[in-house]
Amino acid sequence: MAERNGRAKISLPRYTLWLLVFRLFVPVVTYSIYLLSGISVSLDGLLVTPLSVVLAVSIVGRRFARQTGRVATKAEARRFAVLALPRFLVVEFLVLLGAPLLFGRPDITQEYIYFLTGEYATFIWSLVGLFLLIAFLLNRWVVVFSAW
């Protein structure tokens, strides 16, 4: 556990790793089931992203509480939530743009790039802003509540 000025910090690298694992795990499993059985059990991306954030931040929040014997303070939770946002954004773009390449579907990646830059760009970037707000709030609250 990292310490700063004698105080423990919530692990951002561990959060990023868990976020990436959970963010990749659900779509890969659902797509694999679809390929093997032809049955679509996919979850909407709007559900997968917040679920991944909650699971990742719960793990690091509980670990922080277990190691320090206390829950994160409001200032620690807020600092963690702010510092976790760029990591969340990077993981999301890696998954959205990179995961289709793992399955040999570069055409899907090209569609994502079109949506980010084409005629729907304003709407899509508004959704990105909404996801950032949701991720900030989830990171801020769940890191404290996960320790209970």
Question: How does this structure look, described?
Answer:
With 148 residues, this protein is mainly alpha-helical. It has helices at residues 12-37, 45-68, 74-102, 106-117, 121-145; strands at 3-4, 7-8. A two-stranded antiparallel ribbon has the order 1-2. A hairpin with a 2-residue loop joins β1 (3-4) and β2.
Helix and strand pattern: EEHHHHH
Tell the overall outline.
globular
Q: How large is the share of residues in beta strands?
A: under 5%
Q: Output the radius of gyration.
A: 17 Å
Strand order of the largest sheet: 1-2
Share of helical residues: over 70%
How confident is the prediction overall: mean pLDDT? 82
Which structural category fits the helices and strands? Answer: mainly alpha
Low confidence ranges: none
Give the strand tally. Answer: 2
- Count of DSSP H/I helices: 5
Q: Report the span from N to C terminus.
A: 19 Å
Q: Please outline the major beta sheet.
A: 2 strands, antiparallel
